[in-house]
Design goal:
Elements: H1 6-17, H2 21-40, E1 45-47, E2 51-58, E3 61-64, E4 71-74, E5 77-84, H3 86-96
Antiparallel strand pairs: 1-2, 2-5, 3-4
Helix pairs in contact: 1-2
Length: 106
Amino acid sequence: MGTTTKKELTNVIAERLKLRQMLVRDVVQTFLDACIEELAKGNRLEFRDFGVFEAISRAARKARNPKTGEVVEVPPKTVVDFKMGKSMKAVINAEAAPGNAEAPAQ
């Protein structure tokens, strides 16, 4: 299992669609920027079969430093929650099953 970078993903998309890498890179970056802007506005992003992104607020809380045992205040913050869609869940679970070397045909 490894890490795929934005550049590698852009190259894959450019190759599949037979488009210039620079064009695909700009489209991917514009898409990501638009997603961030919408989440910052408090909007929910729903991509059918892929999943749902939603900004949620976490309340302030008390936590404990595991090294010292000292109680520390954790301030409130906003985080992004992601829930997988049905298609993604099916592919991910099929790949994670023991003995499965490849994803199901689509």
